[in-house]
Design a protein that fits this description.
This protein is an alpha+beta fold and 112 residues long. The protein has one domain. The protein is built from two helices and four strands. Strands 2-1-4-3 form a four-stranded antiparallel beta sheet, with no helix packed on it. Helix 1 runs parallel beside helix 2. The C terminus is likely disordered. The structure holds zinc ion (ZN). The site of zinc ion has 7 residues, from loops.
Amino acid sequence: MPCNISYACLDCRKAFKRPVHLQNMPEHAPCPECGGPMHDFGRHFKAPRQDDIKQWKKVRFLIEHGFRFQKIRTGPGHHDTVPYPDTLEEARTFVVTYRRFASPASVADDAD
Ligand SMILES: [Zn+2]
């Protein structure tokens, strides 16, 4: 059974749901608007409004630091899931605090 995964294009600031098989999930898909790479945001992503530039900046920042809206659990329980930050400012702290949960493939190569 395929399931609906959100892919978003950071340049068009649009998200598209695509039915994919989890065993064979492409990490990137071409954007239907601009042909650029869309990132896989999993099943839990809620796209910001297209004109909400600040929110999209936050999304891009999280992606660049290896956070693709995967669930982050700090403990074994259902309630130990960490909420994603609401603002870019919160995101700056978030990526440092939860660095160990970042997806290694997309960790930005920055020095700070
Ligand atoms: Zn695009």
